[in-house]
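Reopening this one. Same input as before:
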Amino acid sequence: MNTVQHVLDINPRLESEMLTLIALMKQNKPAIRDIVIGCSRHDSHIRTAYQFKTLWEAYGGPFGDGGQVLAVVDWNERAKSFNKYIRRINRHNPDAFVALGATEGFEQVMRRLHRLTDIKAHRTYVMSTLASQSMISSGGMFIFEGMRGITPFGHDFVVESGMLQVNGHSRAV
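Same output, byte for byte:
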Protein backbone atom coordinates (compact mmCIF):
# COMPACT_ATOMS: atom_id res chain seq x y z
CA MET A 1 0.00 0.00 0.00
CA ASN A 2 1.41 3.40 -0.93
CA THR A 3 1.32 6.44 1.34
CA VAL A 4 -1.71 8.00 -0.36
CA GLN A 5 -3.73 4.79 0.04
CA HIS A 6 -2.80 4.60 3.71
CA VAL A 7 -3.71 8.21 4.47
CA LEU A 8 -6.94 8.13 2.46
CA ASP A 9 -7.95 4.54 3.16
CA ILE A 10 -8.60 4.22 -0.58
CA ASN A 11 -9.00 0.93 -2.40
CA PRO A 12 -6.46 0.25 -5.17
CA ARG A 13 -9.09 -0.01 -7.96
CA LEU A 14 -10.57 3.37 -7.08
CA GLU A 15 -7.13 4.95 -6.77
CA SER A 16 -6.22 3.57 -10.21
CA GLU A 17 -9.40 5.03 -11.71
CA MET A 18 -8.70 8.43 -10.15
CA LEU A 19 -5.07 8.47 -11.32
CA THR A 20 -6.19 7.45 -14.82
CA LEU A 21 -8.65 10.36 -14.83
CA ILE A 22 -5.89 12.71 -13.67
CA ALA A 23 -3.66 11.44 -16.51
CA LEU A 24 -6.47 12.13 -18.99
CA MET A 25 -6.92 15.64 -17.59
CA LYS A 26 -3.19 16.35 -17.85
CA GLN A 27 -3.44 15.85 -21.63
CA ASN A 28 -5.85 18.78 -21.95
CA LYS A 29 -4.79 21.92 -23.80
CA PRO A 30 -4.91 24.52 -22.38
CA ALA A 31 -3.55 22.98 -19.21
CA ILE A 32 -5.87 22.36 -16.28
CA ARG A 33 -4.74 23.63 -12.90
CA ASP A 34 -7.84 24.74 -10.98
CA ILE A 35 -10.85 22.46 -10.67
CA VAL A 36 -14.18 22.19 -8.90
CA ILE A 37 -15.31 18.71 -7.86
CA GLY A 38 -19.00 17.87 -7.78
CA CYS A 39 -20.76 14.79 -6.46
CA SER A 40 -24.05 13.32 -5.33
CA ARG A 41 -24.86 13.86 -1.67
CA HIS A 42 -24.06 10.36 -0.42
CA ASP A 43 -21.35 9.61 2.13
CA SER A 44 -19.44 7.32 -0.24
CA HIS A 45 -19.49 9.87 -3.09
CA ILE A 46 -18.46 12.74 -0.82
CA ARG A 47 -15.62 10.64 0.56
CA THR A 48 -14.49 9.77 -2.98
CA ALA A 49 -14.64 13.47 -3.95
CA TYR A 50 -12.28 14.35 -1.09
CA GLN A 51 -10.00 11.45 -1.99
CA PHE A 52 -9.84 12.81 -5.56
CA LYS A 53 -9.14 16.27 -4.11
CA THR A 54 -6.11 14.91 -2.26
CA LEU A 55 -4.80 13.13 -5.36
CA TRP A 56 -5.34 16.19 -7.60
CA GLU A 57 -3.50 18.39 -5.11
CA ALA A 58 -0.60 15.90 -5.11
CA TYR A 59 -0.42 14.78 -8.77
CA GLY A 60 -2.67 17.05 -10.84
CA GLY A 61 -1.99 20.30 -12.60
CA PRO A 62 -0.13 20.90 -15.84
CA PHE A 63 3.19 19.53 -14.57
CA GLY A 64 1.95 16.77 -12.28
CA ASP A 65 3.21 18.63 -9.23
CA GLY A 66 -0.22 19.43 -7.84
CA GLY A 67 -3.29 21.32 -8.91
CA GLN A 68 -5.75 23.38 -6.93
CA VAL A 69 -9.26 22.36 -5.91
CA LEU A 70 -11.36 25.51 -5.64
CA ALA A 71 -14.42 23.79 -4.13
CA VAL A 72 -16.14 20.48 -3.54
CA VAL A 73 -19.87 20.81 -4.23
CA ASP A 74 -22.31 18.06 -3.33
CA TRP A 75 -25.90 18.08 -4.58
CA ASN A 76 -29.15 16.41 -3.65
CA GLU A 77 -30.17 14.54 -6.80
CA ARG A 78 -33.85 14.94 -5.86
CA ALA A 79 -33.65 18.71 -5.32
CA LYS A 80 -36.44 20.84 -6.76
CA SER A 81 -33.90 23.41 -7.89
CA PHE A 82 -30.26 22.91 -8.82
CA ASN A 83 -29.52 26.62 -9.19
CA LYS A 84 -27.68 26.95 -5.86
CA TYR A 85 -25.37 24.07 -6.83
CA ILE A 86 -24.71 25.68 -10.21
CA ARG A 87 -23.84 29.00 -8.55
CA ARG A 88 -21.39 27.21 -6.22
CA ILE A 89 -19.71 25.44 -9.15
CA ASN A 90 -19.59 28.47 -11.43
CA ARG A 91 -18.53 30.97 -8.73
CA HIS A 92 -14.89 29.88 -8.99
CA ASN A 93 -14.59 29.80 -12.81
CA PRO A 94 -12.54 26.56 -12.78
CA ASP A 95 -10.40 25.30 -15.63
CA ALA A 96 -12.36 22.04 -15.37
CA PHE A 97 -15.26 20.45 -13.54
CA VAL A 98 -14.80 16.90 -12.19
CA ALA A 99 -17.91 14.92 -11.26
CA LEU A 100 -18.90 11.59 -9.77
CA GLY A 101 -21.99 10.04 -8.25
CA ALA A 102 -25.49 9.21 -9.47
CA THR A 103 -26.55 9.97 -13.04
CA GLU A 104 -29.92 11.36 -11.96
CA GLY A 105 -28.61 14.51 -10.28
CA PHE A 106 -25.64 14.91 -12.60
CA GLU A 107 -27.86 15.16 -15.66
CA GLN A 108 -29.68 18.10 -14.03
CA VAL A 109 -26.39 19.76 -13.10
CA MET A 110 -25.08 19.44 -16.67
CA ARG A 111 -28.30 20.83 -18.18
CA ARG A 112 -28.02 23.94 -16.05
CA LEU A 113 -24.26 24.36 -16.48
CA HIS A 114 -24.77 24.13 -20.25
CA ARG A 115 -27.61 26.63 -20.24
CA LEU A 116 -26.44 29.13 -17.61
CA THR A 117 -22.61 29.13 -17.50
CA ASP A 118 -19.43 28.90 -19.54
CA ILE A 119 -18.68 25.50 -17.97
CA LYS A 120 -19.64 23.21 -20.83
CA ALA A 121 -19.18 19.48 -21.28
CA HIS A 122 -15.77 19.85 -22.96
CA ARG A 123 -14.51 21.19 -19.60
CA THR A 124 -16.09 18.30 -17.67
CA TYR A 125 -14.38 15.07 -16.59
CA VAL A 126 -16.23 12.21 -14.90
CA MET A 127 -15.55 9.06 -12.93
CA SER A 128 -16.92 5.71 -14.12
CA THR A 129 -20.21 6.05 -12.22
CA LEU A 130 -21.22 8.67 -14.81
CA ALA A 131 -20.13 6.78 -17.94
CA SER A 132 -23.73 6.20 -19.04
CA GLN A 133 -25.00 6.21 -22.61
CA SER A 134 -28.61 6.19 -21.38
CA MET A 135 -27.97 9.39 -19.37
CA ILE A 136 -26.33 11.03 -22.41
CA SER A 137 -29.24 10.01 -24.66
CA SER A 138 -31.80 11.20 -22.10
CA GLY A 139 -30.08 14.53 -21.47
CA GLY A 140 -29.56 15.42 -25.09
CA MET A 141 -26.41 15.17 -27.14
CA PHE A 142 -25.45 18.85 -26.85
CA ILE A 143 -25.54 18.79 -23.04
CA PHE A 144 -22.77 16.16 -22.85
CA GLU A 145 -20.88 16.78 -26.12
CA GLY A 146 -17.12 16.73 -25.46
CA MET A 147 -17.37 15.37 -21.91
CA ARG A 148 -14.50 13.02 -21.04
CA GLY A 149 -14.06 10.37 -18.42
CA ILE A 150 -13.15 6.86 -17.39
CA THR A 151 -15.24 3.72 -17.89
CA PRO A 152 -15.68 1.06 -15.18
CA PHE A 153 -13.02 -0.95 -17.06
CA GLY A 154 -10.41 1.82 -16.85
CA HIS A 155 -10.64 3.02 -20.45
CA ASP A 156 -11.04 6.67 -21.26
CA PHE A 157 -13.97 7.98 -23.27
CA VAL A 158 -15.25 11.13 -24.91
CA VAL A 159 -18.82 11.99 -25.93
CA GLU A 160 -18.96 12.69 -29.68
CA SER A 161 -22.16 13.16 -31.71
CA GLY A 162 -24.16 12.11 -28.68
CA MET A 163 -22.34 8.78 -28.32
CA LEU A 164 -19.96 7.66 -25.60
CA GLN A 165 -16.82 6.77 -27.62
CA VAL A 166 -14.45 4.49 -25.69
CA ASN A 167 -10.74 4.38 -26.46
CA GLY A 168 -9.23 0.91 -26.60
CA HIS A 169 -6.68 1.27 -23.84
CA SER A 170 -6.37 2.77 -20.41
CA ARG A 171 -3.87 5.45 -19.50
CA ALA A 172 -1.89 5.66 -16.29
CA VAL A 173 -0.13 8.53 -14.56
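So the earlier flakiness isn't reproducible anymore. For the record, Helices lie at 3-8, 12-26, 43-59, 83-90, 103-116, 133-139, 141-144.
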